[in-house]
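Query form — protein Putative branched-chain-amino-acid transaminase

QUESTION: What is the three-dimensional structure of this chain?
INPUT:
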Amino acid sequence: MKNEFMKYAYFKGEIVEFEKATVSIAAHSLQYGTTCFGGIRGYYRDGKISVFRLKDHYIRLMNASKMLGFEFFVSWEEFKKTVGELIKKNDIKEDFYMRPFVFCSQPRISPKKAGLDFELAIYLLPLADYVSTEKGGIRFMSSTYRKYSDAAIPTKAKAGGSYINSFLATSDAQRNGYDEALMFDNNGNVVEASVANIILIYRDKVVVPDVGSDALEGITVRSMLELLEYNGYEVHREKLDRSMILTADELLVTGTAMKIVYAESLDGRPIGTEDYSARGQAGKYYKLLKSEFEKVISGEHELSKKWLEIF
Ligand code: PMP
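ANSWER: The structure tokens for Putative branched-chain-amino-acid transaminase are given below.
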């Protein structure tokens, strides 16, 4: 991901130059990770900007703020208006990524909540494809760091501090020569990747971890599952273990940044069984979802209207 931010951001209730949106080094959110955030993609097609499932991202952000007890709320109308103003002010003519987040900038030396005020900020950056599968799929390592449980931190909130878990897991995977970490819970169930959800094709069935697992409820995976259902496939929600991954037909990885990619291997063992020569390669479900999703974001799918917010 290129760190080339767009010129204008939303900060303290107004649109300001990105460089001017700064906080104290003692800010509560910087010390204790007390933020929740969203990651949203926007596309520039035929002279128009369309944002993918903006309202669903807004709802998840407000739910996160609620789960974390931040006592911050902005209405959908206000949020959408701000996003529209930011898009206009930045005069966007390319695909981009948008990061809204709720945070507290007050300087504090204790994590306690009394007297804290939370607020919204949004910044944007250009973002083309994040992960390329030209050289093959993702090579996963089974993470030695477990995914934290919902009993410790709300797993359905994208809570800033909780990303220490993803940081440790991906750093470890990459230090060991892999692309990504596959996260397990304390019982050995497969949960998700470090910053993306998974879809397993197992014995010709589409299987994903149940909603009550410790995975984030990804908006992209939800869309991919709806696309599978649209194409007549049934989706099953179950517990997944490592043996299922190692004997699966396909393992797909999906999230806002990467859209959809396929996994090539787990711990050096190729994914896919039926046709030995096709192991570790792009499978039919991956190809279907990639082409369906491209249609959606180009406005050519029946579901485009439902999912794209046009600015
Ligand atoms: N899991 C985690 C831990 C993530 O950070 C993300 C990225 N937001 C996802 C899954 C995928 O979610 P989404 O499709 O909403 O981007």
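ADDITIONAL NOTE: The chain has two domains: 8-126, 138-298.
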